[in-house]
Amino acid sequence: MIYVCAGMYRSGSTWLYNAVRLILAHAGVSECKAGWISERDRLLGHRNVVIKIHAFDEELASPENVILTSHRDLRDVAASLRRKFNKPFCMVDLRATLETQERWAGLADYELHYENLLTNRMGELKRVARAMRLSEECVSGLCFGSIMRELDGQEFREDHATPQRYDAENLLHCGHITDGRHGSWRGTLARREVRQIEREFRPWLE
């Protein structure tokens, strides 16, 4: 089985990737490998695969695969990208982000609303497990408390760092979370930037 974790940038997509990876490990799923899309060729040689990706991919967007996605308020996405990567504000990029997200969401077995991570992470973890096409017996036998503790303990490790400066196993960057609050765009984005986002994306934001 191929598990595709295809979320917006800065939307909890790495949490989602690690949730899937750890659920499979606790479920005892054999021959399972996980990683970033750049390792695609190596990963797809295995029976069970977890791939993290942001861009839309026609081949991976197959109904045979389990597709899990995530989204977040676009104002918070823009603010988080600025804080973490010093990325300039760009409406073109935000339009592309939303277009890509909507394509994945139309195929998804599960969609994470970032804000729910702040209020009901355990509930979301259980929803992820139920979306993964595991047997009812397998899901009911999972110790979600243990999985959550392991998930909460994930962090960037220098001895696992890739040349691109992310952890090769859990894909976390150093200082991965800059400000996880909903509404963290306040104080980061300029008023004119907020107005541009709200003017164009108001229906979606609501």
Short note summarizing the structure:
This protein has 206 residues and is an alpha/beta fold. Helices cover 44% and strands 13% of the residues.
Describe this structure in words.
The chain is an alpha/beta fold and 206 residues long. The chain contains nine helices and five strands. It has a five-stranded parallel β-sheet, sandwiched between helices. The protein is globular and about 50 Å long. The termini are far apart. 31% of the residues are buried. The model has no long low-confidence stretch (mean pLDDT 91).
Task: Output the keywords.
13% strand; 5-stranded parallel beta sheet; alpha/beta; 206 residues
What is the SS-derived class?
A: alpha/beta
SSE pattern, N- to C-terminal: EHEHEEHHEHHHHH
Please give the radius of gyration in angstroms.
Answer: 17 Å
Beta-strand percentage? 5-15%
Largest sheet properties: 5 strands, parallel
Strand order of the largest sheet: 2-3-1-4-5
Task: Give the beta-strand count.
Answer: 5
